[in-house]
Specification:
Layout: E1 30-34, H1 45-48, E2 53-54, E3 67-68, E4 78-82, E5 93-101, E6 105-114, E7 120-125, E8 134-140, E9 145-149, E10 156-161, E11 167-175, E12 180-185, E13 188-193, E14 200-205, E15 212-223, E16 232-237, E17 242-244, E18 247-249, E19 252-257, E20 266-271, E21 276-281, E22 291-295, E23 300-302, E24 307-315, E25 329-337, E26 346-351, H2 356-371, E27 383-388, H3 401-410, E28 417-420, E29 423-424, H4 429-436, E30 442-450, E31 455-464, E32 468-483, E33 493-502, E34 508-512, E35 517-525, E36 545-553, E37 558-565, E38 567-569, E39 578-580, E40 583-585, H5 597-603, E41 608-609, E42 617-619, E43 626-633, E44 638-644, E45 649-655, E46 660-667, E47 674-682, E48 685-693
Parallel strand pairs: 17-25, 26-27, 30-38, 41-48
Antiparallel strand pairs: 1-15, 2-5, 3-4, 4-15, 5-14, 6-11, 6-15, 7-8, 7-14, 8-9, 9-10, 11-12, 12-13, 16-19, 18-23, 19-22, 20-21, 20-24, 24-25, 26-28, 28-29, 30-31, 31-35, 32-33, 32-34, 32-36, 36-37, 39-40, 42-43, 43-46, 44-45, 44-47, 47-48
Length: 694
């Protein structure tokens, strides 16, 4: 699925206010259910029901859904959705909830039956006027992948699997007050997340291209948040889950006041299953929905490699019991190891300057990266590599085959698409923190040195404290930032963009064994400027670049560790120039004919004659191999040079001319297809002509 073809964000509609038609709505609570048994097979749902409508508000037509008795989870009826259209639909059924839920507890539950290898889709809208903001997208992919994601699908919150050809239940529970979204499938909780759009107003069911699914037994409820009494809520245990022993571990956590009364004191008790430790916290004044971070005075001593389960409980709140003891406890697991390294998560992001959704996603993504000191030599909280793709329009100028190979490695078929440590991403701070907390057993150190400004030597030292026999070391030169207005999506500023992988996109195979160190040495050449698709030139030289090193476990594609390495030495390409028809041009490689613009200008012939004055003839032109050059000469040697369109010298020779007609052949078979500039200089006279190599 390509994300930029996902459901129409720009579609206009007429929103119908249906709240008065909901007999089950009250001031206190909203409840809705429909098993579709009250309809007749063949009825249009929106045209028959006072609760259901369509995206445009037009019911009883192609946008509406028909009641079906072909398959049902309960009773005899359900609804069936299918689409063969490239843009999805036309079925597009909406259930408005009558109001916007911005607090309280919300629950959506329904049963799905997805035909084998097809898929399903629905979303929850975050505004009463549909089509403005998507709270969450639910994708049931054709390969059995189930994803809850942001609007448009670019950022995944939760990913799991679902079955084909059987009925299964999907349940989304949301504490809107606390922004806790939880997914369950068939009664099994899959995971929770914080949503960037924490509001709910309606349900939209819209089959994407190729989808075929039945929908039945929907149950929705919303209970407003009304704080009452005394309610202390232990929201988290903040003690690290992985430590290097020996260590005295502090037991830390966060308490939320979820009740009406201010909290002035409480006891915190923690236990490792053997011993109990209690400490009183007093002199507090925690108001409704405010939090308090605590650190327990009793430490947990760990002096060996082990796993310790701890439970933390709030007791004696304001000297009494609070009204809800179900939220008073949390459990956590602490793993200890003899060696640990600081883990730096890695984002690999696939994007393009012709991708519209990318232009929407990228600014917010960059804010997240910057907040974590992305690719910081001294204090990186996360590392990032942006791979600029060749679609959906013309190839991005920074595209090359390294990009294709990495996207194929992950099976990326649509952009924007990001992976963190080799897994699909939700692109959130919570996700970064979770990955940083994963144990890491690899140290990476190294240098990256340039001698001439366009050469680079990378020397790495990698030490592992566990066995990873099937690993790959990747070295990526990324450009910190550059400006480029040649795309079509409005983006002009680009950051952390991959320019080249060393030695190539396959990386270096490594057999990492516990306690051992390996070394890797790689070299590369980087011309400056004239950046074009399929090339590896840098936009602003190696001084604008740094090296990202990461190690990937090929058994599961998990990135085990990443590091950023500063490029040192002479990072500026030596100034050099070639004399061309349009003036003195720096080819960006340091190997131009003249070492300064002044020297070039002094030597560059200003009396550039039209090619007819030399009676210059080229044949054939265009050419596929040999070009024959004929011209008139005086008795003086002739300098013949051929430059690429970017100004790089690709051929030169001195022709021992005599007076009169001259003829010579130049073999261009070794040159790539393109446009070249032929320069003939004789004394202080110069002629130029374009050669097209096919």
């Amino acid at each position: 699925m390509t994300y930029y073809l996902t459901k129409k964000n720009t579609m206009k509609h007429i929103y119908l206010v249906l709240g008065l038609l909901y007999s089950t709505i009250s001031v206190a609570q909203y409840n809705f259910s429909d098993d579709f048994e009250s309809y007749n097979s063949g009825d249009y749902l929106g045209a028959t029901s006072p609760s259901w409508t369509t995206w445009s508000g037009t019911t009883g037509g192609a946008e509406d859904v028909v009641i079906s008795d072909a398959n049902a989870n309960s009773g005899t009826n359900s609804t069936f959705y299918s689409s063969s259209a490239a843009t999805g639909g036309p079925q597009d059924v909406v259930l408005p909830f009558g109001s916007l839920f911005t607090e309280g507890e919300f629950s959506f539950e329904a049963s799905f039956f997805v035909n084998n290898g097809t898929g399903a889709y629905f979303n929850l809208q975050a505004e009463e006027e549909i089509g403005q903001t998507w709270a969450v997208d639910c994708f049931m992919e054709t390969d059995g992948t189930f994803r809850l994601a942001t609007g448009g699908g670019a950022t995944t919150f939760i990913e799991t699997t679902y079955p084909f050809n059987v009925w299964f239940d999907v349940k989304i529970e949301v504490n809107v007050t606390l922004n806790i979204w939880t997914l369950s499938i068939d009664g099994q909780e899959i995971g929770s997340f914080e949503n960037t759009e924490n509001a709910i107003a309606s349900l939209d069911i819209f089959p994407l291209q190729g989808n075929q699914f039945y929908f039945d037994d929907i149950v929705i409820s919303h209970t407003p948040y009304e704080p009452t009494g005394l309610d202390a809520y232990l929201t988290s245990i903040n003690t690290p889950s992985n430590i290097q022993f020996p260590l005295n571990v502090e037991i830390m956590g966060t308490v939320l006041n979820y009740g009406e009364e201010n909290i002035t004191s409480f006891d915190i008790t923690w236990t490792d299953g053997t011993d109990n430790y209690t400490e009183n916290f007093s002199g507090l004044n925690i108001a409704n929905l405010e939090t308090y971070d605590f650190t327990h005075g009793d430490l947990l001593n760990i002096d060996s490699q082990t796993t310790t389960d701890i439970t933390v409980t709030i007791e004696n709140v304001n000297g009494a019991m609070d009204i809800d003891e179900t939220n008073n406890s949390q459990s956590s697991q602490i793993n200890s190891y003899p060696f640990l390294s600081e883990r730096i998560p890695l984002y690999e992001h696939f994007t393009s300057n012709t991708c519209g959704p990318c232009a929407v996603f990228n600014p917010g993504f960059q804010v997240l990266l910057n907040a974590n000191d992305v690719n910081n030599i001294n204090n990186s909280g996360v590392n990032a590599i942006k791979f600029q793709e060749s679609y959906p329009g013309a190839p991005d100028q920074s595209y090359n085959s390294d990009v294709t190979n990495r996207s194929s490695y992950y099976g990326v078929t649509g952009i924007p698409s990001a992976h963190i440590d080799g897994t699909s991403t939700s692109s959130s701070q919570t996700e970064i923190d979770d990955h940083k907390n994963e144990p890491c057993f690899i140290d990476i150190s190294g240098t990256a040195v340039s001698e001439e400004g366009n050469d680079l030597t990378v020397n790495l030292s990698i030490t592992s404290y566990q066995d990873y026999p099937n690993s790959t070391v990747h070295i990526v030169i990324v450009e910190d930032e550059y400006n480029n207005s040649l795309g079509s999506n409005g983006e002009t500023e680009f950051y952390q963009v991959a320019r080249k992988m060393l030695p190539n996109s396959s990386g270096t195979t490594a057999n990492l064994t516990s306690g051992n160190t390996i070394t890797i040495n790689e070299e590369g050449f980087f011309a400056y400027g004239n950046v074009e698709a399929e090339g590896y030139n840098t936009w602003n030289g190696l001084g604008n670049c740094r090296v990202i090193v990461y190690i990937q476990n090929e058994d599961d594609q998990i990135v085990l560790q990443s590091r950023v390495i500063e490029i040192t030495g002479n990072t500026n390409v030596a100034e050099s120039y070639n004399c061309l028809a349009n003036g003195c041009i720096d080819p960006g490689t340091g190997d131009g004919e003249y070492s300064s613009a002044e020297e070039c200008s002094a030597a560059c012939v200003t009396d550039i004659k039209h090619w007819n004055d030399f009676k210059l003839e080229l044949s054939p032109n265009p050419t596929t191999d040999i070009v024959k050059i004929q011209f008139q000469s005086v008795e003086e040697n002739v300098s013949i040079k051929i430059y690429s369109i970017a100004g790089q010298l690709v051929y030169q020779t001195i022709h021992n001319a005599t007076q009169g007609s001259q003829s010579l052949k130049i073999d261009m078979r070794h040159l790539e297809s393109g446009i070249y500039n032929l320069s003939i200089m004789q004394g202080h006279k110069k002629a130029e002509h374009l050669i097209i190599k096919q």
